[in-house]
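User: Please run a holo structure prediction.
Assistant: Happy to. Please share the sequence and the ligand.
User: Here you go; the ligand is uridine 5'-triphosphate.
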Amino acid sequence: MSLIKKAVIPIAGFGTRFLPITKSVPKEMIPILDKPTIHYIVEEAVNSGITDILFVTSKHKKCIEDYFDNFKELENVLELSGNYEMLNIIKDISNMANISFVRQKEQKGLGHAIYHAKAFVGSDPFCVLLGDDLIYNDNKPCLKQLIDIHDDYGGSVIGVQKVDFKDVDKYGIIDGVEVYKDLYEVKNLIEKPHVDHAPSNIAILGRYIISPSIFEFLEEGLVGKGGEIQLTDSILKLLTNEKVYAYNFEGIRYDIGNKLGYLEATIDYALRDNSINRDLTRYLKER
Ligand code: UTP
């Protein structure tokens, strides 16, 4: 049994690529079918053995707190009308994990957001999940794959997959040595490199197991690429004393932070849903 039980999910960003909806609706609450995207992320964490989740949030994201809270009035209505199936679904949402929240008052970057989890994390390695990457694997969740690597090898573990070279400037890119099939020992990390300077096309994709030593470096508040306090800069500093691995996880990854990736996820999740896949397939063929 893994000792990793805590996950941090930063949600304090502005979601500018999804404006105007994100002016008043957090992008994490945009649905794929009938569940907000953040529900799938929490589900992945819970199905990977996580019991405690901290959201690093902001004042614009209150409805996410409500989503994971009890809603007694609604439960009463569902009970009175005999809709027990939905009643159980609604109750389960507020019981998925021990969920807590901390506010990031100023959006200074992902590294700054993660620094807010210092007290929650304590002295054990912890997970980070980013909501922009939705990863489908109905056999073994991506996060569980990384936890298993951590349990075998120790150190920090970053979830990666290869991307097109033309897209490397959108990601943190690793330079590493393959030590086992799909497992790299990281030697360097470059945040959003120009294609001519990219050491590889192996990209960091929103899932991490991180050593608690990271907080010593995050505390320095070094401003990096894009004027933001970057998480990758502090992971790079971990390399001086500790091992950092990158694992090419198995799973279909959707970049739901952009419109096309979001639509692809919506269509694929709908095609996997028995209640609508036949009608949707017919409609898509007609189109
Ligand atoms: P992004 O760089 O994708 O920013 O942040 P964003 O605001 O979510 O979306 P765009 O790019 O403007 O459309 C990566 C993750 O880090 C969180 C975001 O909420 C997202 O989960 N984040 C980013 C914070 O929590 N705080 C920050 O200061 C910056």
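The chain has one domain: 6-286.
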